[in-house]
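Here is the promised in-class demo. Please do not try to memorize the tokens; focus on the logic of going from shape to residues.
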């Protein structure tokens, strides 16, 4: 089987000792696909040709927007705080230019009645200081990236860019040739 790496490269809360369970190279399979520059160019040309041809600029913008939110998830994982991110939507917390992290923190705390402690900016900043310079592809969840990309492009172009459509587009653009360059592919081939 294949399992997302998530934050297990820092702390593996779900250790399964088996030679036939493989982890993705990056945070998850979506980030594995999005790391490929050609994939990013394909989705930017499909959805935002009117804005810019610089797919790396958009990718870095989305990563920067998601950084603090992603560190909040890392804080939760490492400290096993039991914050409830399941089903959480960024759409109510993005105004087209920035994410409102204070509102996110309040909502995450409110939807997490069994949390061991409240999430706050200090916890997030301390986590960021403790794990400086994490590559965005390891820190950011691919689903969050795709969601924010869709919201960002909807705001910028006025077209309704659907996250599910973007996800499907990425998956169809990521072919066997691209997959064969990953560590995941190599690990699977060694197993066979």
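The designed amino acids, position by position:
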């Amino acid at each position: 089987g294949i399992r997302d790496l998530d934050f297990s490269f820092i702390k593996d809360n779900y250790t399964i000792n088996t030679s036939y369970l493989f982890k993705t190279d990056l945070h998850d399979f979506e980030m594995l696909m999005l790391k490929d520059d050609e994939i990013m160019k394909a989705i930017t040309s499909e959805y935002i040709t009117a804005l810019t041809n610089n797919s790396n600029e958009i990718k870095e913008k989305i990563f920067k927007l998601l950084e603090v939110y992603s560190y909040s998830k890392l804080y939760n994982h490492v400290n096993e705080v039991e914050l409830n991110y399941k089903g959480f939507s960024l759409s109510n917390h993005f105004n087209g230019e920035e994410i409102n992290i204070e509102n996110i923190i309040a909502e995450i705390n409110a939807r997490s009645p069994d949390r061991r402690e409240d999430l706050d900016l200090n916890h997030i900043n301390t986590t960021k200081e403790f794990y400086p310079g994490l590559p965005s592809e390891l820190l950011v969840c691919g689903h969050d990236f795709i969601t924010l990309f869709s919201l960002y492009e909807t705001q910028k172009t006025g077209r309704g860019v659907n996250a599910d459509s973007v996800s499907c587009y990425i998956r169809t653009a990521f072919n066997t040739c691209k997959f064969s360059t990953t560590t995941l592919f190599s690990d699977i081939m060694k197993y066979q």
